[in-house]
Amino acid sequence: MTAAEHEPEHSAGYEVDTLIVGAGFAGLGLGIRLRRRAEETGAAASFLILERAHDVGGTWRDNVYPGVACDIPSHLYSYSFRTKPDWSHVYPSGAELQEYLRECAREEGVLPHLRFGETVTDARWDADAGRWLVTTPRGSYRARALVSAVGRLSEPRVPGIKGLHTFTGRVLHTAAWDSSLALRDKRVGLVGTGSSGVQLLPYLAREAAHVTVFQRSAPYVVPRGDRAYTLEEQERFTDPLERQRMRDEIFWQAESAFPQRLGEPEAIGQLHDRARVHLESQVADPALRAALTPDYEIGCKRVPLSDEFYPALTRPNVTLEASALERVDGTTAIAGSGARHDLDVLVFATGFHAARPPFADLVTGRDGIRLAEHWAQGMRAYASIVVAGFPNLFVLDGPNASLGHNSAIYMIEAQLDYVLGALDHLERTDAPLEIPRAAEDAYLAALDAAAADTVWLSGCTSWYVDERSGRLTLLWPGYAHTFRERNGTFDAAVFDGAPIPAR
Ligand SMILES: Cc1cc2nc3c(=O)[nH]c(=O)nc-3n(C[C@H](O)[C@H](O)[C@H](O)COP(=O)(O)OP(=O)(O)OC[C@H]3O[C@@H](n4cnc5c(N)ncnc54)[C@H](O)[C@@H]3O)c2cc1C
Fold first, then answer.
1. Whether residue 291 is found in the same domain as residue 269
2. Which residues approach ligand 1 with their CB closer than 6 A?
3. Going by C-beta distance under 8 Å and a sequence separation of 6 or more, which residues neighbour residue 417?
4. Residue pair 283/289 in contact by the 8 Å Cβ criterion
5. CA of 59 relative to ligand 1 center, distance in Å
6. Which atom of ligand 1 approaches the CA of 359 most closely?
7. Fewest CB atoms within 10 A around its CB: which of 95, 96, 138, 486?
């Protein structure tokens, strides 16, 4: 798929029923469902997907650092409506997921609906016309419904480190990896020990002359146990029933881990033991072990899976700096502990602008209110998808729609069902759909009550929690299947002021 194939020369006032922004799992998934629905009904599929990059894939297109992989097994971390028999491993690599998404776009007939190199810079609701007006540097679009599928981990975040501009070496973020970068003979600083840092370190340790790992707070790490599928297994998965059986097994196994997030003592004790035994079996040095022992409740931050992270830290060419990077002065990186490290390359594995999505600055709803203003105390939406004051806007993978214990794709698919129901309704009525503020408030109050006792609000600092309000705004504070039960079906009555359903 090349950029030239699917990039418009110019588009002025192009009109479609549904405009989707973003071609990751969410945007592409909706495109596939809309294509299939059009084929079933024989109606025209009036939608476009605007994607700022030059390929589909989102997360799995942008994150190409060595070791990048998913923590959810392949048979579950994929569309239920397009399963795949020949996953190479139990856990998919980033590259295999990217190939899967490309194949989906190609084979499901979505390519003609994709516009690459189209960065949405403005989207505003025109109340008189009952349409969204969307602008990109190349042109403008009008649409009845606007679907934000811009992702929650798509805007890399580099912390404001004093003196970083004076660094004479190379600086890069894991989400913008340069595969031509040669590390032999280089002294590398790795900033951050979240999921990406944990995945990248083994490669850096093998390749670089020396690695200094800046660890602000120690992660809990549990065994990964990945392996290649055998040919016999792949053969067995050619039977759709076998694939479904495997999906269900993985799904319910992941669901059974949710009581850990509720802080239930027995469940959390088991997880704690798994992490402790893993650390103790892989790190013999008591001082290093102590430095790698977290001081917050397990599960409060995302728990990385790795069999190679701890062994990499025991290598002679790796130094664990158990404090944050604070300052840079020329080639010297100065840690919170005061220690100074001379470096040639600085790699930031520091995550994304997750709680404050930059896209919210670009969207203006009824009465000229920007989404970022409506979200001034953190992201909020009714049913985790529709926003008061923003008619006909649907936010995928946004407020309280992620999980710490199960697959994001399951959540996205529940949201696709909701959107399809809403789009059907809009087609029938063509009357703007706007959720009453009272419904949004009531939904949020129920979420806040459910979140109060979870491990995510037990006191650690994490990107799941909005620092402005202290609210859990990223994660759904429940089982994944309850998200589908609660939010997987569009209900027009709530838009007319009917009481919201109990959770
Ligand atoms: C390194 C990494 C590992 C992960 N591992 C897991 C895991 O193990 N399990 C799990 O469940 N989830 C994981 N995730 C989360 C992952 O992001 C989601 O699972 C899922 O891929 C999100 O899909 P999406 O379509 O919502 O967003 P994305 O994949 O982020 O796609 C958003 C798209 O929107 C485009 N876009 C953004 N702004 C604009 C704009 N203004 N105009 C036009 N286009 C725009 C972007 O270019 C991008 O292509 C991981 C994320 C990362 C970064």
1. yes
2. 21-27, 50-53, 58-59, 63, 68, 70-72, 119-120, 149-151, 153-154, 195-196, 359, 396-397, 407-408
3. 484, 488, 489, 490
4. yes
5. 4
6. 41
7. 95
- The alpha carbon of 186 and the centre of ligand 1 are apart by a number of angstroms equal to 31
Tally the domains of the chain.
Answer: 2
Q: What pairing do the DSSP bridges indicate for beta strands 139-148 and 131-136?
A: antiparallel
- Residues spanned by the domain of 308: 164-348
Q: What is the pLDDT of residues 220-260, one digit of tens each?
A: 999 999 999 999 999 999 999 999 999 999 999 999 988 88
Co-location of 180 and 99 in the same domain: no
Atom in ligand 1 nearest the alpha carbon of residue 362: 41
In this predicted structure, the answer to whether residue 164 has a pLDDT above a threshold of 90 is yes
Strand 122-126 with 131-136, pairing:
antiparallel
Distance from the CA of 152 to the center of ligand 1, in angstroms?
Answer: 6
- Do 204 and 187 fall into the same domain? yes
Q: Tens digits of per-residue pLDDT, 5-51?
A: 445 444 557 899 999 999 999 999 999 999 999 999 988 889 999 99
Best mutation site among 153, 177, 394 for ligand 1 pocket (most ligand atoms within 8 Å of CB): 153
| DSSP run (H or E) holding 143 | strand 139-148
Name residue, tokens 């024989």.
42
Give me the pLDDT at residue 503, please.
55
Specify whether 313 is located in the same domain as 432.
no
